[in-house]
Amino acid sequence: MKISEIIVIFLLLLIVLGGLSVPLWWDRAQPFVFSLPGYIAGIIRELKDSLDYILKSIK
Quick count: other Cβ atoms within 10 Å of Cβ 45? Predict the structure, then answer.
């Protein structure tokens, strides 16, 4: 076998093992993944409110 064939087989093995392990880690990661948009929206909303407060206090 050539080195390139061995590398391709190794990468395919990693992809297959990664695909098999997705259900295992997805159960743990799902709450965090789905809560990220709300968390980011909250940060943006707080930054906007802070900026509005600063601009109102300058006037």
Answer: 10
